[in-house]
C-alpha cells in the first residue's frame, strides 16, 4: 500500500476516533459541547477553553470524512474508460456497499434497545445518552431504516451517527457524475468550482457538505503536491485549530468577536465555517504533502483506518451499554472524572474489539456483495 493510501487510512481512522470522543464527551461531559449547567470539574473548563477541541470535534470529523470520500472515490474513477456508461452499476455498488453494514448496525441496535438497555442504568450520565433508544422501535422498522430510509432519507433513529449516510451516498453519486463529465466538459477547469457553487446555491441546508465532496474530487484530480514542510504543517495545524472551534471558548474569542459573515442575506455560523474550512485544510495538507503522508503511514494508523467504518457504526451501542456499566461500577470508589475516564478507556477498547469481527464479517462482505450485485446490473 502506497504512502498516500496509508495516509488516507490514517486520517479516516483518526476522524472516526474524534467522532467517538465527541459522543463520549456528550455522554460524560456535556459541558464540553456548551451545556454550561453541567460542569462537573475544572478539567472540563480547561479542555473547553483550550485550542485542543479537535480531539473531540465530531463536526470537524464529519467534514473530513466528506472530503476524504470525494478524494478516494474520485481517484478510483478519474480517467476510467467508459465511466459514463458504467454509472448505473457504480450507483448500485455504492448503495449496497453502504446499506449492508448500516442494516446490520440497525438490527443490532434494535436488539440492544429491546434486550440490553432496559437493564442498564444511565441516570448518572448526560441526557444525550439517556435519550438514545427512547422511541417506539420495532424489528420491522429497523429493517426498513437500515435498508432504505437511512440512505435515501437520512433516518437515524437506531443510530444517531447514521445521519451522514444519506449525504455520503448522494455525495458519492455527485463525484461519479462530475468525474464522468470532466473529460467531456469543454472547460474542465471551471466544472468543479461551478459544481461546488451550485451545491451551495441549490441544496438547502446540506449544500456545503456536498461542496466538500467536490473539493475532495478536486484534490484527487490535481497532480500538484505541497513540498514545503512548513506550509504543510502550518496548514494541518490551522485545520486542527479550526475544527476545535467553540463560540464560547476563550481560544476562539477573537474570531467570534471579529468575524461576522453572511450568505444570501443570512448570517453564517462561525462554528460551521471553522469546521468546514478546517476539514478541507486537514485533508489537503496530509494528502498533498508527501512528508506528512509519510509521517502518518504506520501500520497502527492503517489498522485504525480499516476499523473506522465499523467503529463508526458500532460506537453508539457501546457508549449506551458498556460506558454506563463501567462508570456505575467505578463511581463508588473514584471521582466523577476518574470513573468517566476509566469508562471511556473501556468503551474505546470495547468499540475496537467489536469492530474486528464486524470489519471482517460485515464490512468486507459488503464489499464483495456490492461488487457482485453491480456486475449483475452492469451485464443487464
From TrEMBL:
The keyword Nucleus does not apply. Residues 6-350 form the Acyltransferase domain. The chain crosses the membrane at residues 12-32, 52-74, 95-117, 160-182, 194-218, 230-248, 309-327, 333-354. The lineage of its organism: Bacteria, Pseudomonadati, Pseudomonadota, Betaproteobacteria, Neisseriales. It comes from Pseudogulbenkiania subflava DSM 22618. One of its GO terms (molecular function) is hydrolase activity. Keywords: Acyltransferase, Hydrolase, Membrane, Transferase, Transmembrane, Transmembrane helix. The keyword Transferase applies. InterPro entries: Acyl_transf_3_dom (IPR002656), Acyltransferase_3 (IPR050879). Signal peptide: none annotated. This is Peptidoglycan/LPS O-acetylase OafA/YrhL, contains acyltransferase and SGNH-hydrolase domains.
